[in-house]
Amino acid sequence: MLIDLRSDTITLPTPAMREAMFTAPLGDDVLGDDPTVNALEAKAAAMFGMEAALFCASGTMTNQLAIRTHTRPGDDVICDYLSHVYQYEGGGISVNALASASLAHGERGKLTPALVRDYIYSPADSHKPLSRLVVLENTINKGGGCYYTIPEIAAIRKVCDEYGLQLHLDGARLFNALVETGEPTTAYGQLFDSISICLSKGLGCPVGSLLLGKADFIHQARRYRKLMGGGWRQAGFLAAAGIYALDHHVDRLKQDHVRARRIGAMLERLPDVVEILPIDTNIVIFRLPETILAADYVQQLETKGIRGIAFGKHQVRFVTHLDFTDEQLTNMEARLK
Prior knowledge:
About 40% of the residues lie in helices and about 15% in strands. It has helices at about 15-20, 35-45, 60-70, 85, 90-95, 115-120, 150-165, 175-180, 185-190, 215-225, 235-250, 255-265, 295-305, 325-335, and strands at about 5, 50-55, 75-80, 100-105, 130-135, 165-170, 195-200, 210-215, 275, 285, 305, 310, 315-320. The strands form three sheets. It has a seven-stranded mixed beta sheet, sandwiched between helices. Strands 9-10-13-12 form a four-stranded antiparallel beta sheet, covered by helices on one side. A two-stranded parallel sheet has the order 1-11.
């Protein structure tokens, strides 16, 4: 039995999700008449108390559409150095939006009001770009799945309002944070100008992310989606999976977090593990001694039937997910001894 913990993107649709997909009514989304896509977008927007939503192929696309829509060429985006929009989106801030990025270095990738203030340029200084947008990530992938709380976000929102900045959330694993904090989704809609939520990670869909915002913002983002080749036709098959996931796969994320912490307890007993980042949600990142390369360690794990990802020169990442069971967890413990 192969135990695959490379990412929570590897999940397969459950039988019930497949049934929802195959029975979904379809239309042409580019023409605006796929009823299942429309239902998913309306459902997600209402869930967060926002006016509209846009269904896209990936979280990278929704993030990049948000950045492009919020900014103008030459503007500056404030984000953390560890953030997904900087680390894993192919330089899209500069390519798609023609914007620059100011990179803060927060604790485990988390920005603070003070850090945001430090990176805001004066609009009176013609040598500098115009600060236009702040991007937060929740949960933070490279931060080991740590998350912001509503009070922390509200404090950053206050700074954005003071300086006239927009605030975007890369919420690829937002529901992992929400099941831990118990905070309402509508609170996020009140704090952010736009939100990206991913359906194909912890929620277990095969494809798709959603961009949420005001109606005029989503209208413009839809135009940019078309420009990027992101318009799709009978996408209701995929949208149906998203509706099913929002209805049935949110609360179960707590199981992934419990299993992640049990993996952490296993790793604490291994002599080659030097440090384990705090395990807040479903991501486990651990550090090896400098004498062991992460790439080599991952190859050794593969021989034991366990898959992880080298997450730096001496760091390895595991991510628990929908298809990782208690039986696999028990087998994993035996294989790591």
